[in-house]
Design brief:
- The chain has 303 residues and is mostly helical.
- The protein has 2 domains: 212 residues, Up-down Bundle (Alpha-lytic protease prodomain-like); 71 residues, Alpha-Beta Plaits.
- The C terminus is likely disordered.
- The protein has 9 helices and 3 strands, in the order H-H-H-H-H-H-H-H-E-E-H-E.
- It has a 3-stranded mixed beta sheet.
- The radius of gyration is 25 Å and the shape is elongated.
Length: 303
């Protein structure tokens, strides 16, 4: 089920990426490494992304209006989708361009040890950010795999931060390999290949996030145990149910339930209120519930 937006993980990632971006730009200016430049732009994009995630969380808290009666919970999905697009354009495309340019120009590195030192420090900072994201995500992940968490989570920020941090760590390792092999062999092609590897990695991560955030943005319904708890709360599963997340922490439930024919209006109202109460007790995120009597179907007792 949906939970908190992982604000601690987002802030940790923002601070780490801002410091890393500054250090990488200094390293690029000193060394001329294309891997360092690609990683610098990557870190700037990541820093901007964390800011967008925080903005999305703030926007989602706005009160419902006549124009938006269900509130603004999907703002979190929208800003997460924008983050995925930025990761692809500013991270992947730029890194691929820079790597190909480096292959063609064969520009040598200067002061490569500076780049190595900065990359090692960046790996330490990214590891802290990644660990924070893992810690924040673990309660929501439950007994499933991390891949299942990324695919099924209704909280968009944590999968975004997890994949960003994971991609950043692997990218730093690729950059370190590129610079290291260039130093050992004197051939700058390894720095260029490291940059291209970073671009391909970021592209793959961005595509995964784009697909998942688009699915959340257009509306996903409850599945598995959550849907079972809803139908059980409506008694016996003799219902027609449609669900949709209108925000990470708000689930719209629409159900057509069978009632005993001939019930007075007051009894129908009591039965619907009781069913709604049971569903909300079983699924706290189901805050908006609309139940409609199915007068064409009969039961021996009211729901």
């Amino acid at each position: 089920m949906a939970g908190h937006g992982g604000t601690r993980a987002i802030v940790a990632a923002l601070l780490a990426n801002a410091g890393i971006a500054a250090a990488k730009f200094v390293g690029w200016l000193i060394t001329g490494s294309s891997s360092m430049l690609a990683e610098s732009v990557h870190s700037v994009a990541d820093t901007s992304n964390q800011g967008l995630l925080l903005l999305g969380g703030r926007q989602a808290k706005r009160a419902a209006t006549a124009e938006h009666p269900f509130g603004y919970g999907r703002d979190r999905y929208f800003y997460s989708f924008v983050v995925a697009l930025l990761l692809f354009t500013l991270g992947s495309v730029f890194a691929l361009y820079e790597g190909i340019h480096k292959l063609e120009s064969h520009e040598p590195l200067t002061s490569p040890l500076v780049a190595v030192a900065i990359l090692v420090i960046a790996i330490g900072l990214e590891s802290y950010s990644f660990r924070t994201a893992v810690t924040e995500s673990r309660p929501l992940k439950g007994g499933g795999t991390w891949w299942q968490f990324i695919r099924q989570s209704k909280v968009p920020e944590l999968p975004v931060v997890l994949l960003e941090d994971f991609g950043a760590l692997i990218g730093l390792v690729l950059a370190l390999l590129g610079v290291g092999l260039t130093v050992l062999t004197g051939n700058s092609v390894f720095d260029a290949l490291g940059t291209i590897g970073i671009g391909l990695l970021l592209g793959a991560i961005a595509i995964i996030l784009i697909v998942e955030m688009k699915s959340l943005l257009i509306g996903e319904g409850a599945t598995g145990p959550v849907l079972s708890r809803i139908t059980d709360g409506l008694v016996g599963g003799d219902v027609h149910v449609r669900t949709q997340y209108i925000g990470p922490e708000e689930l719209l439930v629409a159900a057509k339930i069978a009632l005993t024919p001939g019930l007075p209006v007051e009894a129908v109202a009591r039965a619907i209120d009781a069913a709604e109460g049971r569903v909300r007790a079983a699924v706290p995120d189901a805050r908006l519930i609309y139940l409609e009597p199915d007068l064409d179907r009969t039961r021996t007792a009211p729901v």
